[in-house]
Amino acid sequence: GAGVSQSPSNKVTEKGKDVELRCDPISGHTALYWYRQRLGQGLEFLIYFQGNSAPDKSGLPSDRFSAERTGESVSTLTIQRTQQEDSAVYLCASSLSPTSGGGDEQFFGPGTRLTVL
Amino acid sequence: GENVEQHPSTLSVQEGDSAVIKCTYSDSASNYFPWYKQELGKGPQLIIDIRSNVGEKKDQRIAVTLNKTAKHFSLHITETQPEDSAVYFCAASNRTPGGSYIPTFGRGTSLIVHP
């Protein structure tokens, strides 16, 4: 079946512009996660959704970052007034609901490579 | 919060040799330890995981060991093949009040298997 998809795959923007990154999780996965991966680094947690609510957004680095999720499916990560240090690969992952016995294995999308000039 | 250290950052082996990647963690409450493989241009993919009530787990050519007392865990790949070449990430986590695991990742190990 279809995996996690993300769009766009690459995004080049100018400093100060806003960007929106999209994630389509696996159908039926109620948990959704956003991570940031800087070059040569590990994955940095940004935000976690259970359904449409975000019980943990502790990883968002500043108020320029926000995310929303509608209909327990698609999520968008928005970065306002982008800075050069925002350049990274943004990864989305989804998992089954913990209440249905899942929540352990996360399935990752291919990521969006963001370059801020 | 949790802190995960991973070594080495780069590992180069000959095809057929074994490869070992080691990680340490700081939070004794962590109880779930997944390992992910990331190929170029792709997202990470879970290859094996272990829970704190188990000391070792094997799946064909890969195995993971966990020492809770010392707070370290390792990935072992035997009979390496060129297609094992990738970046490997370890992670440590415990279940959040909402029930999901939010892992803290190591910085990754770039494994290169030479034919």
Topology:
The complex is a heterodimer of chains A (117) and B (115).
Chain A: E1 5-7, E2 10-13, E3 19-24, E4 31-37, E5 43-50, E6 53-56, E7 65-69, E8 75-79, E9 88-95, E10 107-108, E11 112-116
Parallel strand pairs in A: 2-11
Antiparallel strand pairs in A: 1-3, 3-8, 4-5, 4-9, 5-6, 7-8, 9-10, 9-11
Chain B: E1 4-7, E2 10-14, E3 19-25, E4 32-38, E5 45-51, E6 56-59, E7 62-67, E8 72-77, E9 86-92, E10 104-105, E11 109-114
Parallel strand pairs in B: 2-11
Antiparallel strand pairs in B: 1-3, 3-8, 4-5, 4-9, 6-7, 7-8, 9-10, 9-11
Strand tally of chain A is 11
Shape of chain A: globular
**Separate helix tally of chain A:** 0
**Largest interchain contact:** A-B, 28 and 28 residues
**Major sheet attributes of chain A:** 7 strands, mixed
Parts with pLDDT < 50 across at least 5 consecutive residues of chain A: none
Textual characterization of the structure:
The complex is a heterodimer of chains A (117) and B (115). With 117 residues, chain A is mostly beta strands. Helix content of chain A is 0%, strand content 49%. Chain A has no helices and 11 strands. Chain A is globular and about 45 Å long. By secondary structure, chain B is mainly beta. Chain B has no helices and 11 strands. In chain B, strands 2, 4, 5, 9, 10 and 11 form a 6-stranded mixed β-sheet that branches. A 5-stranded antiparallel β-sheet of chain B has the order 1-3-8-7-6, with no helix packed on it. In chain B, strand 7 and strand 8 (72-77) form a beta hairpin. The A-B interface holds A 4, 31, 33, 40-45, 48, 50, 55-56, 91, 93, 95, 97-99, 103-111 and B 4, 6, 32, 34, 36, 41-46, 49, 89, 91, 95-108.
In short:
The complex is a heterodimer of chains A (117) and B (115). By secondary structure, chain A is mainly β.
